[in-house]
Structure to design on (588 residues):
């Protein structure tokens, strides 16, 4: 290393140090350069479309289970039973937010748009179980029992209505043939068969006509 | 110290019956306590300022939770260090492990003895002041090396070895860069060196502006001293990102605290020496502080000295948060291929200058031109 290179090294060291010191001095003096956010007191503005915690509006939810099927890590679980009015009734809707990776697939796929990302991002828990969000507070078994009861009631009502309708039909049919005793026996049989079939499917009238056809036998 | 004791005995008739050596000893203890309190306060506040400066430079905020604007952070840190469990690794050399922090702390604290705080504010105006500082601060190396060795930890050992190599290497340029001030004053005593920079020239009486060689000498000293005290561009013994924490990695509690304090103490010593040897020390520009009443003269000169020293400390922190760490070979190359030859050339230059111009500096010559 010649003297020239040696001197150049020294000059370079001094110049680069001075340059660096100028930059740090500018940062040190200028208070506007601070980028720290004092978190608990200050919060950042949540951007539009931010994927925070999931929230399901259970009133709008149709229990279609699309979210359950699409979730790559199976963090959504759902239980539903068919209600009295033939619509699905949610018994439980849980999201394990500790597992969720906020991919947003479930929100995209939701047909009634009931599942949404909220802006929430703060949560602390002492147990893993606390990370499971329950969107339906009631016990699933209770809901199921209640819905089953309603369904049974409605079914019973329907059955009664059918019975009445059949009884009418039978009496009508009975009026036409002459022999009364035979018809009475047959009619009791026919009612039993109708009851069995009413449980399977609705529409008593066509069946009633079927039974009318049966009767002459 | 004995002169002070005699004047105290003369001033207070109550002390007439007490033997002189008792008074002297008591005075020494009091002075030592005062300096210790000053050193500890500086080290505490210094650590806070260091972190605040780091925050500013790195576009952060720095400590701001304890007390107003984070002002009491250093007290919290101190309490934490004192209360923490003092761990000694099972495979450590217990005696050396316990001894090391004291070497480091004593090495840096003992140097405070000859720091000229003011006209009469110096614990002991040794006639070998600079020599004493150089000798006593070498104890820090022993402490660091002992800590590295006794911890029985590869990182600590690497840190300790690096520290030994680095501090021993940089001791030479530090000493050589300080000698110009000694040559100009004709004395090793720090008070004499400070007095030699006084007079009617004011700021231009400082050794910094005495001649071009002393000007460079100041920067050479500052660079080398930064390395000798393990400040960041040269903090290889600590090297957080490669050696975790270097020689003090196994230390906890108050033992770690002593290393920490010695580091900040060294910082002040470097700043104080730079101030005393090159920046006019406690001399008030265009003003003879020694001619004032004792109290006012001392307070004024103390204020001037501390202002200069703290400014130097701030500049050290500024450098610390600016430059990245050197590699070991770069560090050694810088010491032996650049700093050592340059300081020798400087020393030669200053000696020749003093010989040729009969000890006059450039400002002095200009002043004599105008009468």
């Amino acid at each position: 290393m010649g003297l020239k290179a040696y001197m150049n090294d020294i000059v370079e060291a001094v110049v680069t140090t001075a340059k660096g010191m100028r930059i740090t001095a500018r940062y040190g003096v200028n208070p506007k350069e601070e980028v720290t956010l004092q978190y608990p007191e200050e919060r950042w503005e949540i951007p539009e479309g931010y994927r925070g915690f999931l929230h399901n509006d259970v009133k709008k939810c149709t229990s279609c289970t699309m979210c359950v099927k699409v979730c790559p890590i199976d963090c959504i679980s759902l239980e539903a039973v068919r209600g009295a009015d033939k619509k699905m009734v949610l018994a439980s809707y849980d999201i394990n937010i500790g597992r969720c990776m906020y991919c947003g697939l479930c929100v995209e796929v939701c047909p009634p748009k009931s599942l949404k990302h909220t802006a929430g991002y703060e949560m602390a828990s002492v147990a893993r179980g606390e990370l499971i969000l329950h969107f339906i507070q009631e016990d699933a078994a209770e809901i199921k029992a209640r819905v089953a009861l309603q369904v049974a009631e409605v079914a019973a009502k329907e059955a009664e209505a059918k019975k009445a309708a059949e009884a009418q039909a039978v009496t009508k049919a009975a009026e036409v043939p002459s022999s009364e005793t035979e018809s009475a026996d047959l009619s009791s049989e026919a009612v039993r068969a109708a009851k069995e079939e009413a449980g399977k499917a609705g529409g008593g009238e066509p069946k009633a006509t079927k039974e009318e056809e049966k009767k002459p036998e | 110290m004995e002169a002070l004791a005699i004047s105290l005995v003369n001033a207070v008739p109550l002390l007439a019956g007490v033997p002189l050596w008792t008074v002297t000893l008591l005075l020494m203890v009091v002075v030592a306590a005062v300096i210790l309190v000053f050193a500890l306060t500086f080290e505490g506040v210094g650590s806070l300022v260091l972190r605040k400066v780091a925050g500013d430079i790195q576009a952060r905020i720095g400590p701001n939770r304890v007390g107003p604007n984070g002002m009491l952070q250093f007290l919290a840190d101190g309490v934490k260090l004192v209360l923490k469990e003092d761990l000694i690794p099972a495979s450590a050399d217990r005696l050396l492990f316990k001894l090391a922090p004291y070497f480091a702390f004593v090495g840096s604290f003992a140097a405070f003895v000859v720091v000229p705080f003011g006209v009469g504010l110096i614990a002991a105006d040794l006639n070998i002041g600079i020599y004493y500082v150089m000798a006593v601060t070498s104890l820090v190396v022993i402490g660091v090396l002992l800590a590295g060795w006794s911890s029985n930890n590869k990182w600590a050992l690497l840190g300790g070895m690096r520290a030994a190599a680095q501090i021993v290497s940089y001791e030479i340029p530090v000493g050589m860069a300080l000698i110009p001030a000694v040559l100009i004053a004709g004395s090793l005593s720090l008070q004499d060196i400070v007095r030699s920079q006084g007079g009617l020239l004011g700021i231009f009486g400082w050794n910094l502006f005495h001649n071009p060689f002393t000007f460079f000498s100041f920067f050479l000293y500052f660079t080398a001293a930064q390395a000798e005290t393990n400040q960041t561009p040269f903090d290889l013994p600590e090297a957080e990102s490669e050696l975790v924490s270097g020689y003090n990695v196994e230390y906890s509690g108050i033992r770690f605290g002593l290393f920490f304090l010695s580091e900040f103490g060294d910082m002040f010593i470097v700043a104080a020496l730079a101030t005393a040897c090159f920046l006019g020390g406690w001399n008030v520009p265009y003003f003879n502080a020694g001619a004032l009443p004792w109290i006012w003269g001392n307070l004024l000169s103390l204020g001037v000295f501390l202002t200069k020293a703290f400014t130097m400390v701030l500049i050290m922190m500024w450098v610390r948060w600016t430059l990245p760490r050197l590699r070991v070979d770069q560090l050694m190359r810088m010491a032996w291929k650049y700093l050592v030859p340059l300081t020798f050339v400087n020393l030669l230059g200053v000696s020749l200058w003093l010989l040729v111009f009969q000890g006059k500096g450039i400002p002095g010559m200009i002043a004599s031109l105008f009468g």
